Amino acid sequence: MRFIKSGLIVLLCSVVLATGITGCSEKNSAKKFNAIDITGADFGKDFKLTDHNGKSRTLADFKGKAVVMFFGYTNCPDVCPTTMSDLNQAMKLLGSDAQRVKVLFVTVDPERDTQGLLAKYVPAFNPDFIGLYGDAATTASTAKDFRIFYQKNKPDSNGNYSVDHSAGTYVFDPDGKLRLFMKYGEGAESMAHDLRELLHV
User: What is the C-alpha separation between 138 and 48, in angstroms, rounded?
Assistant: First the structure.
């Protein structure tokens, strides 16, 4: 029952988030995106986290690339591996354009998702993907800045627990501006289409 409950909360949070920011899309009606156009959003402007190689990272490090940012955790049973797999497939569909895209996986479970674990988990989907983490306070601050919901559930008798979290994905254009919100289940073809649109403005 926990996973069913978690899934419903995750999807509900995505819908709520999407509903709350759709008004930003009016300024960019010339482009046809499958995702929700949030051009002009006044949140999620930057971050300061550590990557799975131990290097401090901010959005400026990826200037000139479209940045795809997904919040999740390595023990996630469904949403996270599905999204990461879709993003990997989208990179294949992009062909040479994939070199101009950087996918970032931000953990909402820093208690378990250490640098070493992220270094194994994230590149397993694609060697060019980067895992990011911070301490508990930094994680909370970053999630707040990006309007990401996450909540650790009560551990079972073995100490295992799940984390409810927003299931959507943010996309920045090569100029570092937040542009899109991809709902969970968007699919690789849809993702590739929107990324290609951003890269060839």
Answer: 8
Asked whether 37 and 25 are in contact (CB, 8 A), the reply is yes
Alpha carbon dihedral 169, 120, 129, 10, in 10-degree steps, equals 0
Q: What is the pLDDT of residues 2-12, one digit of tens each?
A: 333 444 444 44
pLDDT band at 32 (very low <50, low <70, confident <90, very high): confident
Cα–Cα distance measured from residue 25 to residue 44, given in angstroms and rounded to the nearest whole number: 16
Distances in Å between the Cα of 67 and the Cα atoms of 55, 62, 112, 158 are 17, 7, 25, 37
52 contacts 160 by C-beta, under 8 angstroms:
no
Q: Tell which residue, 35, 102, 90, 91, has the closest CA to residue 64.
A: 102
pTM, two decimal places: 0.86
110, 125, 169 from 194: Cα distances, Å: 30, 20, 12
Q: pLDDT tens for residues 79-122?
A: 999 999 999 999 999 999 999 999 999 999 999 999 999 999 99
Give the number of residues written for the chain.
Answer: 201
Could you tell me if 167 and 11 are in contact, meaning their C-beta atoms sit under 8 angstroms apart?
yes
Distance, CA of 168 to CA of 22 (rounded, Å): 14
